[in-house]
């Protein structure tokens, strides 16, 4: 088997990634074990309290790193995005139709992958991902007669990254989605969405029901569904990122040491998907 430079680079980082990923789950195990350490009378002593706090902080740092790394890794993988409006690969009996679009929308250029032909299915990734998230689902959809359309949402992957928080409102994200459908001449599509993409999809279905044929939502419940305490705890990073400058300083500290560690930790996910694709969703 012959690997290109990019594949070889990923495989060379696999062993380091396994170590980083192992450290993350070790932190999780410690955190779970020490979450409620009690003394003989059923009370948490001061030493146990501090140990529990430290272990949970360690896990949070590691898990937050894994989440943030995916965005940076996809930018590294796809950083040389196409400047042309469209790149089309003609279809053949063994190669389905494939087109890459650059779709302008209110001053923002959106990268959109367009695979196969047939009934359109729009695939919306979450944070911190890109259209690469759907790399295992797209071939299946195309093989079963669907047209799989996977954009990089604004701020992600190869799409533009406009300045300012207001540029990333849900209203803008929904308008981007409708703009993609318009540009591709699609009246209505099935939508499959995950995480942040799910939030965009819910609002799109509410505001533009005529553009959504079927809606499949992963990870994010209906906007009116009540949030549990556990859900809020798992979304800690959303609060963390609300304080401008803190997350940036956290990632850049010690010559980007944590950032580089996160990249190594995420590499194992991509390598695993290449080596054992049947085990990936």
Notes on the structure:
The chain is α/β, with parallel strands linked by helices. It has two domains: 5-78 and 243-279, no CATH class; 95-218, Rossmann fold, CATH 3.40.50. The chain is 48% helix and 16% strand. It has nine helices and seven strands; from the N terminus they run αααββββαβαβαβααα. It has helices spanning 5-12, 14-33, 46-78, 137-143, 170-183, 196-207, 229-234, 236-240, 246-275, and strands spanning 86-89, 98-105, 108-115, 119-124, 146-151, 189-194, 212-218. The chain has a seven-stranded mixed beta sheet with strand order 1-2-3-5-4-6-7, sandwiched between helices. The two termini are 24 Å apart. The relative contact order is 0.13.
Cα(first) to Cα(last) distance is 24 Å
- Strand segment tally: 7
Topology pattern, helix = H, strand = E: HHHEEEEHEHEHEHHH
Architecture per CATH nomenclature, i.e. the level-2 architecture of the largest domain: 3-Layer(aba) Sandwich
User: CATH topology of the largest domain, anyone?
Assistant: Rossmann fold
- Low-confidence stretches are 1-44, 51-84
Mean of all residue-level pLDDT scores: 74
State the CATH superfamily name of the largest domain: Alpha/Beta hydrolase fold, catalytic domain
Brief descriptors of the model:
single chain; 281 residues; alpha/beta; Rossmann fold; seven-stranded mixed sheet; 9 helices; 7 strands
In summary, what is this structure?
By secondary structure, this protein is an alpha/beta fold.
Topology record:
Elements: H1 5-12, H2 14-33, H3 46-78, E1 86-89, E2 98-105, E3 108-115, E4 119-124, H4 137-143, E5 146-151, H5 170-183, E6 189-194, H6 196-207, E7 212-218, H7 229-234, H8 236-240, H9 246-275
Helix pairs in contact: 2-3, 2-9, 3-9, 5-6
């Amino acid at each position: 088997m012959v690997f290109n430079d990019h594949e070889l680079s990923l495989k060379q980082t696999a062993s380091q990634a396994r170590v980083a990923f192992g450290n993350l789950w070790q932190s999780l195990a410690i955190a779970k074990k020490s979450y409620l350490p009690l003394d003989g009378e059923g009370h948490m002593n001061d030493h146990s309290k501090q140990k529990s706090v430290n272990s949970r902080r360690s896990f949070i740092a590691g898990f937050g790193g894994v989440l943030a790394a995916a965005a940076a890794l996809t930018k590294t993988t796809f950083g040389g995005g196409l400047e042309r409006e469209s790149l089309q690969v003609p279809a053949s009996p063994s190669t389905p139709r494939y087109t890459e679009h650059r779709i302008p929308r209110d001053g923002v250029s959106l990268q959109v992958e367009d695979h196969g032909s047939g009934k359109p299915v729009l695939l919306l990734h979450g944070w911190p991902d890109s259209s690469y998230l759907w790399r295992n689902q797209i071939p299946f959809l195309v093989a079963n007669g669907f047209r799989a359309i996977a954009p990089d949402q604004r701020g992600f992957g190869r799409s533009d990254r406009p300045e300012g928080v207001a540029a990333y409102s849900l209203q803008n994200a929904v308008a981007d989605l409708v703009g993609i459908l318009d540009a591709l001449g699609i009246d209505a599509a099935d939508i499959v969405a995950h995480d942040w993409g799910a939030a965009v999809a819910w609002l799109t279905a509410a505001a533009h029901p005529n553009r959504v044929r079927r809606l499949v939502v992963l990870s994010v419940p209906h906007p009116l569904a009540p949030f549990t305490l556990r859900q809020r705890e798992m979304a800690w990073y959303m609060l963390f990122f609300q304080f401008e400058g803190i997350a940036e300083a956290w990632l850049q500290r010690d010559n980007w040491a944590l950032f580089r560690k996160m990249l190594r930790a995420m590499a194992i996910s991509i390598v695993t998907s290449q080596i054992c694709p049947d085990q990936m969703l």
